[in-house]
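Recap quiz, item 2
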Amino acid sequence: MEKVILKNLGKPDSHKLENYVASGGYKAIQSALKMRPDNIVQMVKDSGLRGRGGAGFSTGLKWSFIPKDPTIQKYLCCNADEGEPGTYKDRGIMDNDPHILLEGMMITSYAIGASVGYIYIRGEFVFGAKRLEAAIDEAYAKGYLGKNIFGSNFSLDIYIHRGYGAYICGEETALLESIEGLRAQPRKKPPFPALAGLYGKPTVINNVETLACIPAIIEKGPEWFSKMGPEKSPGPKIFCVSGHVKKPGLYELPMGTTVRDLIYNHCGGMLTDKPLKAVIPGGVSAPLLTARELDTALDFDSLAAKGSMLGSGAVVVMDESACMVKSAYIINRFFSHESCGKCTPCRDGTPWLTRVLKRIEHGEGRPGDIELLESLCTNIFGRTFCPLGDGAVMALRGHLKNFREEFQFHIDHKRCMAS
Amino acid sequence: MVTVKINGKEITVEDNTLILDAARHAGYEIPTFCYQADLVGIGSCRMCLVEIEGQKKLQPSCVTPVLHGMSINTETSTVMSARASMLEFLLANHALDCPVCDKGGECELQDMVYKYGPHKGRHAEPKFKFQEKDYALSPVIIKNSNRCVQCMKCVRVCREVVGANVLGALGRGDHQEETSFFRHFLDCDQDGNCIEVCPVGCFMRLPYRYKTRPWDLKGADTVCQWCGTGCRMVIEERDGILIRSKAQMGVGLNSETLCARGRFGNDFMTRAERLKTPLVRRFGKLEPASWQEALAVIKENVPSDGERIGGIASPRLTNEELYLFQKLFRTIFGSANIDSSSRWGSDAVEAFAKAASMDAGGVSVFDCMETDTVLIIGSHVSDENPVTDYIIGQGRRAPRIDHTLP
Ligand SMILES: Cc1cc2nc3c(=O)[nH]c(=O)nc-3n(C[C@H](O)[C@H](O)[C@H](O)COP(=O)(O)O)c2cc1C
Ligand code: SF4
Ligand code: SF4
Ligand code: SF4
Ligand code: SF4
Ligand code: FES
């Protein structure tokens, strides 16, 4: 497949503006500036693009909720917080091809009528922030950003906002709070950001990869995009593969690629001759798939049908040496550590889960612990303020459902079954 | 108006009524921690979850308005078990040291667990402790974070009502701690409204510490006498000694607030320094005397010529007291030398009263806040009438307020 998002990855000095332009960059924005903004929104709707940040919401539809009144200030926020463990696609884009993101943001801002854009980048991504800063400077120097970009009467300023290191900063409303200088905790919805977002103004929040898809949709048309992959979730998708495979890394493939194809044809197969045990298909909140489910297609709907999710597209592959109790414990510890503290079930429920899992993992499990975990999951799930707490439960339930006997073994024998 | 069904009972309420209020109106109690009528709803404690027919998830009734035709259930087994489970979560890390907790006996957490369960704990893990010892945040406020239910009411009342904005939260997740800036002494007026809204024994009064149990107190409803705002409050005594004064949610114009004087300033009643009798100077020293003795001294020393005596009345006296004061001077002492530290001349007062239609009874401070511009003349409200200042402050976002200091 011809790469769309990662097309410049690996080329020398791919981050420089001149090389981006030489590869055909900054043409889409110039065509876009000649179109009517609502036509662009329609094109993105027609393309079938769904948000790559995790929830998979139709991007064009999201943009269409922005009020048309030109007297109201509007904002675009790029979500570059990339906190989901195992996910490093946005970083790949920003480190290597920052201009594709800027071009995507320019087109999006023009389409929704935003005159200011923020890139909320994860605090640890110092290199990426520097690359973006340099790219923004280059763009200003060329007149691609600032007043009357490309000689049009559209003006746009883009600012970088570096995060302070919490997973919750990636939740879109917590992200807005953080840009405003407040503690990152999710806001109550409604009102939705499209009506009252950053500083109370209409705001679109999109993931880096989502925005990086926009230039190609303008250039090659929505039909081209919608023909790639499954009808209901089309387009190119970056998979971030990690774990027990020969060649972990970023893979840009059409949506709907199967897990088997990804692992065995693209990643060179399993790392050793130990057989595959489990795959987390979409970041650690996604319930895992077992070796029997490798023919599942990696797209929003196919994974949802399997009770899992595509999430951020982080694929974590584990072979038979991996202990599922340990995996559940580490993942859960992450969530309880990252709970923002706002709502009771997540704040006080997830650390309780972690404490029990820690005991089981360390050979101090008690009879009844599995039932306790399940009951706590019931009491957390669907009752939290934002999806973080639910994610913690989904991950744990995935482990318990498929590998209950490993938990039981840990409790009964005070040691691990896998290693 | 919208019509909804709550537990099968049909009721009609105003548009945008919260499910919580509609349910209470229909006679169903829903427990809450983070909800408070005069604060912006945050829907975070999840105590108030209810079932709405047709919706998969339980919804927080304190931030969800009713919609026409909604069918809401507040007492199904799912709702009841969600309530019990929230309390179980809150207790997981809770200190649960009721015997030494000043809140015991009037603690919302105790009451709720008693009512909604669970009556048996399953959390058999080590707890997280914020600190070993309570720490003072001011000469009158002391804090124990190990008992917090994270309702944020302390922070919100400080920000939204008092306007001081000196409280916030440190940390994240179950390490989140509502306190001052890095637990330093508070730079505020020490009004203690954070104490009043705290449902548990986190923010506590230092002067009240370990003095009594709430059930040993006898209370009386009264009006604060420190300033003209006239806040309603309850003063409580034990064995004839005043122990504390507190506000009541929804009662009086102050509702749940008081200022530092109203909350902590009434201990003068039992202070040794308090004057209980007149003092008469004998041989250069002030000594306690009876009223008879004191009046005799006055009588002896009042000059017969009214021109040589004058009286200054406090501007805080009531009209009746002022009347008696002038009567004493005019008819007994034969003096017209009467003044007050009230800063306005009678002409100015008259003109102002006319301009502000005060002769027709004036308007309440709340009506005043409905206007576009508020002019405050000759008063330092934030010092003199703090609770009035809170009310003005809450309106500050909308209308224009101009202060003119004398
Ligand atoms: C706890 C939590 C963390 C999230 N972290 C991220 C993140 O790091 N990056 C991201 O793009 N979206 C993240 N999201 C999803 C965002 O809330 C939001 O849906 C997304 O940025 C929308 O962009 P999209 O429509 O382009 O996907 C997170 C959501 C939750 C609940
Ligand atoms: S589920 Fe609740 S505590 Fe957890 S991150 Fe979301 S708002 Fe914060
Ligand atoms: S806050 Fe309430 S439940 Fe907690 S220790 Fe004090 S009295 Fe007991
Ligand atoms: S200290 Fe009290 S008022 Fe503040 S969050 Fe904790 S329980 Fe609520
Ligand atoms: S503002 Fe303060 S002093 Fe005045 S009545 Fe209210 S509590 Fe008393
Ligand atoms: S009272 Fe409704 S969520 Fe706290």
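Chain A has three domains: 17-226, 236-319, 324-413.
The CA atoms of residues 89 and 240 of chain A lie 6 Å apart.
End of item.
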